[in-house]
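Agenda item 2: glycinamide ribonucleotide complex prediction
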Amino acid sequence: MKNIVVLVSGGGTNLQALIDAEARGEIPNGKITCVIASNAEAYALTRAKQNHIKTRVLVRKEYATIQSYSAAMVEALHEENADLVIYAGFMTILDEQVTNAFPFKMMNVHPALIPSFCGKGFYGLHVHKEALKRGVKLTGATVHFVTEVCDGGPIILQAAVPVLENDTPEILQRRVMEECEWKLLPRAAALFCDGKITVKDGIVHIAVSYTHLTLPTIR
Ligand code: GAR
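Presented output:
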């Protein structure tokens, strides 16, 4: 059984999707053992407590530099014996101390089809505002491994949704979450915990057959 540590900063709907998937038996070889928040007010902490999951808070502002914050994060992740670290709406970019300590053992969910609308400054609602501004007709979500390049690690899973005529950033965000993020992230966690994911020359290979990237139901 793999220990999953989830990093959060906000509302935690992706954390909830992971909790619900685990409860339904959809992550048979993984268990969420700890949730670490970057701020004490994150509602994600309440979700963790309601589900009797251990919580920790590492407040970014209490550390003078990103280096000292990243060092504290590595220590916390080692203390929690993390096998898989999931960024679920975690809004702090950690340095290479963290990615070096957990190579291809950290995954992030990003609310766009990488390589579109990603990198520094593209987070949360901003991503959907930019997608609407550009007039794309399809958007979606990406789960990828975390490397030292922001949103640049190997892509694990993607799913797409249409952008509709009267979408606001909030409406589009909700569609991307419901139809993409909340399905992809638990699925990626399950595949990792089942040992089905390998990375070769920067490309993820998944040892199960599935039909099409826009269909998040993967057999
Ligand atoms: C999600 O849409 C997630 O993809 C995004 O923040 C939201 C967090 O929501 N993450 C990023 O933009 C990271 N670059 P949640 O706290 O309800 O899961």
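Discussion summary: The pocket of glycinamide ribonucleotide is lined by residues 10-14, 44, 88-89, 109-111, 123-124, 127, 177, 181 (CB under 6 Å).
Owner for follow-up: CH.
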